[in-house]
Design goal:
It is built from 16 helices and 29 strands. The protein is α/β, with parallel strands linked by helices. The protein folds into 2 domains: 403 residues, ANL, N-terminal domain (Rossmann fold); 104 residues, GMP Synthetase, Chain A, domain 3 (2-Layer Sandwich). Strands 3-2-13-12-14-15-16-17-18 form a 9-stranded mixed β-sheet, sandwiched between helices. Helix 10 links the parallel strand 14 and strand 15. Helix 4 packs across helix 5 and helix 10 packs across helix 11. It is globular, with a radius of gyration of 23 Å. The mean pLDDT is 94. Keywords: Ligase. Belongs to the ATP-dependent AMP-binding enzyme family. This is Fatty-acyl-CoA synthase. GO terms for molecular function: medium-chain fatty acid-CoA ligase activity.
Length: 538
């Protein structure tokens, strides 16, 4: 048992000195005929338009296409240059990722939901010299948007459509590929935008490959197993954990293009997937799907989630309905991305109430405002150090220095508590803390209690300016049915929380704004409250 909130790195599992390209070559050499990648697409697929497109690749075929993609990239771009990919979950995204890794090209991942100004910002800030994109997705003419921003970006030399791209690269002549090292930059991933200002985290091969392997090891993923995923590839959970993690276990990745409950459940059934991972909102949607019980999900043994607080009731319901064990992950993009995780063999209370112990090779400490390590059980900021820390924010040295100190410790900006066994419990965001009349109030504590009210489908708590108290507590709820009265919610909270934690202001919304990984964007709610756009709950 430890007495201070410091976890020394567990070095029993080695860091993988591999690039993503070397990982693919190693797996393809060992088992070239194993199915590596399967596409599951809805009607109106982003590339084929077909109602169902189960294209698939063996590891041998995936490596061959990745090497052709690397040759294609190498004929247009130099090692170290930045090329963006703007597309949903399509197999070509995975091929491009491996191709860029083999060619030494740094992939800039862009959310396909970005609007024109947002895409322009990412391409400009990352100094991308190329962008590979789908022509359209979910009614958005992405080709037209790319054409519109190209003239305003002098660094952008090439724009390439993914339509027919996989067939096109098969005619590319082989070429000598550069030497790529594990510590070289692999991707620039833009932070979630929960504060409204995205920064490009430069992630390296060593961090992404090793972290993905560790996460699946902690989850108990079997060698040669199947992971069915709808996690977005533009995020580290998709292109890192899903793609690289599955490959590190010689498994099959069933890639679902868009999160549609029927499509996901069908993929889990058809491929008898061992693992499904999703943000809490995905689990809520799956469990609420009317046809859930009609699917045979007996092959699914592992459920994973993270991104934001995972309510204990949701973990319990998911484990019971799926007949599987839950693993909860905690991390952020800057950490490649996972820092701590529960194991599927951990006790029930730990699986439902903590985010587990730090993964191998990671140092973690919880400190006070002066940087001193706190005793176990005392709340403070979570800091991390290890192989998976980003190189920094691209072209933002001051922002990098603000979060990574001279000794390599990364300030997560998250508040948490460590117990005597090293298990972490994340209690909130430092920036989200509400200071009401000198009292520190943590929104997550209130949100979790609100989540237990049957009339609340979703909730976010934040501070709003107050001339007398400095800040007051405000809550935004999404009703689960008829809108509950503020007095009813007030009484529900007062039964378990101190009076000063009870919201003074109540609002109703149709949905809680969140990024693709489920992290709530409270800055959007503040803007909507300030503009008078949310209904006041009486």
């Amino acid at each position: 048992m430890i007495t201070e909130s410091y976890w020394a790195a567990d070095t029993s599992r080695p860091v993988l000195e591999l690039t993503a390209g070397e990982l693919l070559r190693r797996v393809a050499a060992a088992d070239p005929g194993r199915v590596a990648l399967v596409e599951v697409a809805p009607a109106g697929s982003a590339l084929t338009g077909a109602a169902r497109t189960d294209r698939r690749w063996t590891y041998g075929e995936l490596l061959a296409d990745a090497e052709r993609a690397a040759a294609w990239l190498g004929s247009r771009f130099s090692p170290g240059e930045h090329v963006a990919v703007w597309a949903p979950n399509v197999p070509e995204w995975v091929i491009l990722q491996y191709g860029a890794a083999l060619a030494g090209v740094v992939l800039v991942t862009a959310n396909p939901a970005l609007r024109e100004a947002e895409l322009e910002y990412v391409l400009r800030q990352s100094r991308s010299v190329g962008v590979v994109h789908v022509d359209a997705f979910r009614g958005t003419d992405m080709a037209a948007i790319v054409a519109g921003v190209r003239d305003r970006l002098p660094d952008l030399r090439e724009t390439v459509s993914l339509t027919g791209w996989a067939e096109h690269i098969r005619g590319t002549a082989a070429r000598q590929l550069p030497r790529v090292r594990p510590g070289d930059p692999m991707q620039i991933q833009y932070t979630s935008g929960t504060t409204g200002f995205p920064k490009g985290a430069v992630l390296h091969h060593r961090g992404m490959v090793t972290n993905a392997s560790y996460v699946l090891a902690r989850a108990g993923f079997p060698r040669g197993g199947v992971w069915a995923t709808a996690l977005p590839l533009f995020h580290t959970a998709g292109c890192g954990l899903s793609v690289l993690g599955t490959a590190s276990f010689g498994g099959t990745l069933v890639l679902v293009q868009s999160f549609v409950p029927e499509l996901v459940l069908g993929a889990l059934q058809e491929w008898r997937a061992d693992l499904f991972a999703g943000v809490p909102a995905m689990y809520s949607a799956l469990l609420a799907y009317p046809g859930f019980d009609g699917f045979d999900l007996s092959g699914c043994r592992i459920l994973a989630s993270g991104g934001d607080a995972v309510p204990a009731a949701l973990v319990e319901a998911a484990e019971r309905r799926f007949g599987a064990r839950f693993t909860t992950v905690y991390g952020q993009t800057e950490l490649s991305p996972i820092l701590a995780q529960t194991g599927t063999d951990d006790g029930v209370a730990d699986r439902r109430e903590t985010t587990g112990r730090p993964l191998w090779q990671a140092e973690v400490k919880i400190v006070d405002g002066a940087g001193a390590v706190l005793p176990v059980g005392v709340e403070g900021e979570i800091l991390a150090r290890g192989y998976q820390v980003m190189h920094g924010y691209f072209a933002m040295p001051e922002a990098t220095a603000a979060v990574v100190d001279a000794d390599g410790w990364l300030r997560t900006g998250d508040l948490g508590v460590m117990d005597g066994r090293g298990f972490l419990r994340v209690t909130g965001r430092l920036k989200d803390m509400i200071i009401r009349g000198g009292e520190n109030i943590y929104p997550r504590e209130i949100e979790l209690v609100l989540a237990g009210h049957p009339g609340v489908a979703g909730a976010a708590v934040l501070g709003v300016p107050d001339p007398e108290w400095g800040e007051q507590v405000a809550a935004v709820i999404v009703p689960a049915g008829p809108v509950p009265a503020a007095a009813e919610l007030h009484a529900h909270l007062r039964a378990v929380l101190a009076p000063h934690k009870t919201p003074r202001h109540w609002y109703v919304a149709d949905a809680i704004p969140a990024n693709a990984m489920g992290k709530v964007q409270k800055f959007v709610l503040r803007e909507r409250i300030g503009a008078g756009e949310l209904a006041v709950l009486a």
